[in-house]
Write a structure and sequence with these properties.
The complex is a heterodimer of chains A (about 160) and B (about 270). With about 160 residues, chain A is of the alpha/beta class. Chain A has two domains: about 90 residues, Fe-S cluster assembly (FSCA) (GMP Synthetase, Chain A, domain 3, 2-Layer Sandwich); about 50 residues, no CATH class. Helix content of chain A is about 25%, strand content about 25%. Chain A has a four-stranded mixed beta sheet. In chain A, strands 3-4-5 form a three-stranded mixed beta sheet. In chain A, strand 7 and strand 8 form a beta hairpin. Chain B has about 270 residues and is an all-alpha fold. Chain B is about 60% helix and about 0% strand. Classes of the chains: A alpha/beta (about 160), B mainly alpha (about 270). The interface between A and B is large, with 40 and 37 residues. Strand 3 of chain A pairs parallel with strand 1 of chain B.
Chain lengths: ~160, ~270
């Protein structure tokens, strides 16, 4: 008999995703980023399936190892298997409302529908223009706000 | 606030790779090598523009594009490994030029920026068509990855298209673009060639001839739109798809494998 019931352990694992973050966007939890695809706990063995945001994202291995090391510390865990799956593609619609708020507070404009203006995360003005479709991370673009005169990053819509 | 909770599914208990399932898809191995090697070599050449592109934004754009392509290559190499081929690191760092299956177009040494744009545009156009075919293939693990890549590749193609529009407006830029189109056409013949080792059951299921027609049509339409003349598709010559490469690939691998070849098991 496992020391901690599987259902309780699954709840504890799921809650960790509120706290664990993407190293390149520490303001947003993995749960709010929408990358946690599935969690299974059987006799204390934890299986976690994550969705990659971008296949070329250099943070993928880092996130996987960080999740594994973190979950291993939970009481009752008898082993952790974390893997990326491609059953369905992660899209920017997977980012939660709370995640969008967190991104904005961090200075990254959340993804918008194609053709929509990108509001400045600092002053909310839509007088913005794209400086480059590519930014410092695969998931982001570079914009400039003509109202508050700040450059800012915007998440690509996938 | 509750969205993620409902989005997290129960992980299926049994999802370990099943050897017999993997065997069923081994027929795709020759095709996967062409996909993986194309993306790796294209990504490596794109990365060479970091620090040399016409603007700092473009440095970042090419670096980011390189990162995407190499990420896609890694997906394909991992799939190959899953089908029983050597590890991704072995495939990238230990293989001699004659074992690579990328198109010769992609290994071409870096020319001017116009050439980099035209080459990347030509490749991204072909890759988009190819992914449209592969997303329908009966190999679920491949189709799933392709669905993911399509969304990322979209940004590459519109970026290259924006450059074509900009450079084709006239003057020296247009002259260089015209020269670049000529140079790229001379090497593009093996881009849509399927590897000889591919079984007829796989090649027959892919509808490659139609893909090639669609590819040609898209290129010709864009050339017309930007006033760059007619397409000059060259006749099939030496093909990277059968390991017949130019000295440029040897040069590229010399750089790529320089550290790993210093000693067995070296880490960096």
């Amino acid at each position: 008999m496992p020391v901690v019931a599987d259902a309780d352990l699954k709840k504890a694992v799921t809650e960790r995703f509120w706290v664990l973050t993407d190293p390149e966007m520490p303001a947003i939890s993995l749960a709010d980023l929408g990358v946690v695809h599935a969690v299974d706990v059987t006799d204390g063995a934890v299986r976690i399936e994550l969705l990659p945001t971008f296949l070329g994202c250099p943070a993928l291995d880092f996130i996987r190892d960080k999740v594994r090391r973190d979950i291993e510390l939970l009481p009752g865990v008898e082993g952790v298997d974390v893997r990326y799956v491609y059953d369905r593609p992660w899209t920017t619609d997977d980012v939660t409302a709370e995640g969008r708020r967190a991104l904005r507070n961090y200075g990254i404009a959340p993804p918008v529908a194609p053709g929509e203006p990108v509001p400045c995360p600092y002053c909310a003005s839509t007088e913005t223009e794209r400086s480059s479709r590519f930014g410092p991370a695969p998931c982001r673009m570079v914009y400039y706000c003509n109202s508050c005169r700040q450059p800012f990053e915007a998440m690509k819509t996938l | 606030m509750t969205k993620h909770r409902s989005a997290i599914e129960d992980a299926p208990n049994q999802k370990a790779p099943d050897a017999s399932v993997a065997d069923a898809y081994r027929e795709y191995i020759p095709l996967l090598y062409t996909l993986a090697d194309d993306e790796l070599v294209a990504g490596h050449r794109a990365s060479e523009w970091l620090g040399l592109a016409p603007s700092v934004e473009e440095d970042i754009a090419f670096a980011s594009l390189a990162q995407d392509e190499i990420g896609h290559a890694r997906f394909y190499y991992e799939l190959l490994h899953h089908l029983g081929e050597p590890t991704p690191d072995h495939l990238v760092y230990r293989r001699q030029a004659t074992h690579w299956r990328n198109s010769r177009l992609l290994e071409r040494a870096r020319g001017d920026f116009a050439e980099a744009v035209v080459r990347q545009w030509m490749y991204d156009t072909w890759d988009a068509v190819r992914l449209e075919v592969l997303i329908q293939c009966p190999f679920p693990a491949l189709a799933d990855g392709v669905r993911k890549m399509q969304r990322e590749e979209y940004y590459h193609l519109i970026h290259m298209d924006a450059w074509l529009a900009r450079l084709s407006s006239g003057g020296e830029a247009k002259d260089r673009l015209v020269r670049a189109v000529e140079a790229v056409f001379a090497e593009a013949a093996d881009l849509s060639v399927l590897p000889q080792e591919l079984s007829s059951s796989v090649s027959g299921s892919l509808n490659w001839e139609q893909a090639e027609l669609v590819f040609h049509q898209r290129i010709e339409q864009a050339l017309h739109r930007y006033g760059l003349g007619n397409a000059r598709w060259s006749l099939p010559g030496p093909s990277g798809r059968s390991g017949d490469h130019s000295a440029s690939l040897t040069e590229l691998l010399g750089t790529l494998q320089e550290v790993s070849s210093t000693e067995e098991g070296v880490r960096w």
